Amino acid sequence: MTLYQPFLDYATSYMRSRLDLGSYPIPEGFEYKSAITGKGKHQEEVVTTSHGFTAPKLRQIRAAHVQGGQSLQVLNFVIFPQLNYDLPFFGADLVTLPGGHLIALDMQPLFRDDPDYQAKYTTPILPIFQAYQPHLPWGGDFPEEARPFFSPAFLWTRPQETTVVETHVFAAFKDYLKAYLDFVEQAEPVTDAQSLAAIEQAQLRYLRYRAEKDPARGMFRRFYGEEWTEEYIHGFLFDLERKLAECSLS
Ligand code: DBV
Questions:
Q1: What is the mean pLDDT of the segment spanning 164-181?
Q2: ipTM
Q3: Residue 203 C-alpha to ligand 1 middle, in angstroms?
Q4: What is the enzyme's main class (predicted)?
Q5: Closest residue to atom 43 of ligand 1, CA basis
Q6: pTM (predicted TM-score)
Q7: Ligand 1 pocket, residue 142 CB under 6 Å
Q8: For 86-128, what is each residue's pLDDT tens digit?
Q9: Interval 34-51: pLDDT, tens
């Protein structure tokens, strides 16, 4: 069993218990990808698997799971709501590298600086965030340009110990996911044209930033090559622009 498999298993069965889950198409060649890295006795197989779902109100629920031995484990898990809901994104970036663990967990806001939006989608999460702060302190160094995409309840931490990931991080992950599905349950469709346009712009802003700055790009290119990586990023991980283009063609 690898470090983040229990997170993925939990999320899948928990979502199944609360949502009417359908499957989200994964383009050919991306469901399972393997490569051998390193030389001699340092050789290691790196496997990336992809997982995708949809649900009412949620356009794409997707995970990328990278397993490359003890010192390379990644679970990147994001939920993209339908464009007629003002829901935040659920974003989890759980990363284990030779230097240690790097954990990002948040309900990423569409409108970071709008007080009504904060009151609706951040204030209810703050008690959960605060409960974990003593165990999961601020991780330091963080790209300034990424700040607009995170809420004040952003859990960003770099635990040294794997047991911290298995206990506190796992518990926080469960609490955030539960709170997110509570938001989903309560969400009402947005119908006025101006709000719909603002949501689409905010989703595109987020998506373009993530596709452009994907911190995994270097790693994926090394393992699987440039062509596979770019297609993976734009055709699966952050695919909204492609999907919008397909709609307007058909
Ligand atoms: N990050 C992704 C995807 C990944 C992934 C799709 C499938 O968005 C993995 C894989 N994240 C990943 C890896 C690293 C990070 C780091 C492999 C380590 C990169 C390295 O050190 O080589 C949050 N993830 C990070 C970092 C941040 C995040 C801030 C540190 C990067 C740095 O220091 O420059 N999650 C990440 C982020 C957003 C987000 C920037 C922006 C909206 O949601």
A1: 98
A2: 0.94
A3: 18
A4: oxidoreductase
A5: 91
A6: 0.96
A7: yes
A8: 999 999 999 999 999 999 999 999 999 999 999 999 999 999 9
A9: 999 988 888 999 999 999
214 Cβ closer than 6 Å to some ligand 1 atom:
yes
Ligand 1 center to 94 CA (angstroms): 9
**SS in 3 state form for the chain?**
CCCCHHHHHHHHHHHHHHCCCEECCCCCCCCEEEEEECCHHHCEEEEEEEEEEEECCEEEEEEEEEECCCCCEEEEEEEEECCCCCCCEEEEEEEEECCEEEEEEEEECCCCCCHHHHHHHCHHHHHHHHHHCCCCCCCCCCCHHHHHHCCCCCEEECCCCHHHHHHHHHHHHHHHHHHHHHHHHHCCCCCCHHHHHHHHHHHHHHHHHHHHHCCCHHHHHHHHCHHHHHHHHHHHHCCHHHHHHHHHHC
User: Ligand 1: distance of its center to the CA of 42 in Å?
Assistant: 25
Share above pLDDT 70 across residues of the chain, in percent, rounded to a whole number: 99
Residue 250's pLDDT band (cuts 50, 70, 90):
low
Which atom, in ligand 1's list, is nearest to the CA of 233?
A: 6
Out of 62, 79, 94, 102, give the residue to mutate to test ligand 1, the one with the largest number of ligand atoms within 8 Å of its CB: 102
Which residue's CA is the closest to the ligand 1 atom numbered 19?
A: 215
